[in-house]
Amino acid sequence: MTLDPFTIIMLAVLAVLIFFMFRNSRKRQAEAQKLQSSVVPGAKVMTNSGVFGIILSIDEDENQVLLETTPGTVLTVHRQTVARVVEPVAVDDAEVEAAPALDAEPEFGERVEETHVVDAPADDAPDLKKKSDD
Fold first, then answer.
1. pTM for the full model?
2. Which of 32, 63, 120, 130 could form an SS bridge with 79, CB 3.0 to 4.6 Å?
3. How many angstroms separate the CA atoms of 53 and 69, rounded?
4. pLDDT tier, 53 (very low <50, low <70, confident <90, very high otherwise)
């Protein structure tokens, strides 16, 4: 049995695809394990649906998490709906000083958001409402 070059190339491509599939699978498993280890009571998290809250308690048997979204509002969600742990973002003092003031004039060529105000209709403007004939 002789192997032609096309068969050898196809087998090599198949081997590379299988290698990357196993590699990505292990990567996802490691990320999931890291997430589950960081999901502890007191952690600020975000769910898959975008709800932010603080974990109050975790029920391992039922796979449920008590999540406080606002003071006094507690949600019970499945443990797998916790998408990520939210880390607080540290702001440098240099970034705060470099931020432009809201009332400052814009630099030449700098785009600013403009708000358009819709004028109220004037008294002498024609009325566009349909009048019914009685």
1. 0.50
2. 63
3. 4
4. very high
